[in-house]
Amino acid sequence: MENFRLKVFRVVAELLSFRRAAQELHLTQPAITAHIKTLEEILSVTLFSRIGRNISLTPAGETLLLYARQIEALTNQAVASLVPFGTRAGTELAIGASHTIAVYLLPRLLPPILKEWPNLKIHLSAGSTNEILQALTNHQVAIGLIEAPSFRPDLKVEQFAEDELKLIVPIKHPLAKRKSIDAVELAQERLLLRESGSGMRQFVLQYFHLNDVPLQPDSSVDINSTEGIISGVEAGLGVGFVPAMTVEKALKLGSVKAIRLENGPIQRPLSIVLREGPHPQGPVARLIELLRSSQRAN
């Protein structure tokens, strides 16, 4: 339903490449160029600045991109709202999700949606909370799923679950024989933490702060992935904090041991974020239903 010429512009504008846009849309590069030229002639504006092989958006192009994204989002919403009146086909679902949710939670929830909408095209983008909120604001995704608290008056935020950050230790570590540990003793260990600026790291640091326990600058190893922390703990590099849903397999295999935190646990909210407007229908509404029921199941 989206105007095809406008869609061509949107894809070129987002990729900033005529060649990559041609690949994305299964068109020739001359056809892409012709669509953009025609659109510029119709609107009597220049949409792209061209310097050699590089292109960038003009102010007019940036303005049109904003509206093109809104038109795409409204088109997808309109198509989804008509699903109950016709066939369950031909819709798209764009999701922005934090890494943990994208990798460990959504793969369990998307199959029922694809069963109801067999021809549904799903676009899943993983990123930080700020990146997801920006994509939602720019109408690049229909729904955002984040792992950190957020207050945005222009967006609707609903917590659908809580995820515990578990302390895991190597299976041969002396702590593996313990049932619990306090913040003071834990601060003496080499901690494997997510990188500076990570929301997960902030929750861990907050735990030590609330227990009035300072951490030494050289007492931790920064790792920019949850999987890297799990692997580091398995290898005996140190002890670390990871989301509960990410370590289920390692715990079952017995390659690491989870230890209870005194004055814990560390919990973080998992939230659904939507733009203000009518309540979603179709695949987005079904995803929200599954997210809410996932908390009840736990």
What secondary-structure arrangement, pairings included, does this model have?
Elements: H1 4-15, H2 18-25, H3 29-43, E1 48-51, E2 54-57, H4 59-81, E3 92-97, H5 99-116, E4 121-126, H6 129-137, E5 143-146, E6 155-170, E7 180-181, H7 183-186, E8 191-194, H8 199-210, E9 220-223, H9 226-234, E10 239-243, H10 248-253, E11 256-261, E12 266-275, H11 282-297
Parallel strand pairs: 3-4, 3-5, 7-11, 8-9, 8-10
Antiparallel strand pairs: 1-2, 5-12, 6-10, 6-11, 6-12
Report on the architecture of this protein:
- The chain is 44% helix and 24% strand.
- It contains 11 helices and 12 strands.
- It has helices at 4-15, 18-25, 29-43, 59-81, 99-116, 129-137, 183-186, 199-210, 226-234, 248-253, 282-297; strands at 48-51, 54-57, 92-97, 121-126, 143-146, 155-170, 180-181, 191-194, 220-223, 239-243, 256-261, 266-275.
- The strands form 2 sheets. Strands 3, 4, 5, 6, 7, 8, 9, 10, 11 and 12 form a 10-stranded mixed beta sheet that branches. Strands 1-2 form a two-stranded antiparallel sheet.
- Helix 1 crosses helix 4.
- It is elongated and about 70 Å long.
- The model has no long low-confidence stretch (mean pLDDT 87).
Rg result: 23 Å
Category from helices, strands and their pairing: alpha/beta
Pick out the low-confidence regions. none
The residue fraction in helices comes out at: 40-55%
CATH architecture of the domain at 162-269: 3-Layer(aba) Sandwich
CATH fold label of the domain at 162-269: D-Maltodextrin-Binding Protein, domain 2
By CATH reckoning, the class of the domain at 162-269 would read Alpha Beta
Q: Mean of residue pLDDT?
A: 87
How far apart, in Å, are the first and last alpha carbons?
Answer: 40 Å
Note the run of SSEs as H and E.
HHHEEHEHEHEEEHEHEHEHEEH
Determine the strand fraction and express it as a percent band: 15-25%
Provide a count of the helices. 11
User: What does the overall shape look like?
Assistant: elongated
Largest sheet, strands/sense/barrel:
10 strands, mixed
Number of strands: 12
